[in-house]
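Task: sequence design from structure.
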């Protein structure tokens, strides 16, 4: 199974925010620069993460982005499900629908494989993702070199 670029981007943002020092204000632009993606893409990912209750954003002086406590403890499997949606790996009901959809063994096998993929991620939390050696590398990310 392959994650969408949006989910990959959102997970990288969450990981970067997970290692932010207390009181260190990080903006969407700084997170985008740190993981080397366009600001507009990151802004969309941050908005979705806010909607899911994983990230909070505060405006003004001393503001910035932060993970919520729920965000730190959230299951990576749950987060990926929320970001990817509950669609199946194959589009059996597409237009036109697959003529095998009523008797296809592949569809069921792929659904089982997809669930096994998510089940592997379920026990992991965001905090687990940033344990050493990953966390220190994330802290060192400061973005693209200035031109």
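Answer:
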């Amino acid at each position: 199974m392959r994650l969408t670029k949006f989910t990959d981007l959102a997970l990288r943002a969450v990981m970067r925010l997970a290692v932010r020092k207390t009181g260190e204000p990080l903006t969407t632009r700084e997170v985008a620069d740190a993981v080397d993606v366009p600001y507009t893409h990151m802004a969309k990912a941050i908005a979705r993460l806010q909607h899911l209750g994983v990230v909070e954003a505060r405006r003004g002086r001393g503001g910035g982005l932060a993970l919520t406590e729920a965000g730190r403890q959230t299951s990576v499997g749950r987060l990926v499900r929320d970001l990817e949606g509950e669609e199946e790996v194959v589009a059996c009901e597409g237009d036109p629908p697959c003529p095998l959809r009523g008797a296809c063994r592949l569809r069921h096998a792929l659904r089982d494989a997809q669930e096994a993929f998510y089940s592997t991620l379920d026990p992991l939390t965001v905090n687990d993702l940033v344990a050493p050696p990953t966390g220190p590398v994330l802290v060192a990310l400061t973005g693209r070199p200035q031109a």
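The chain is about 50% helix and 5% strand.
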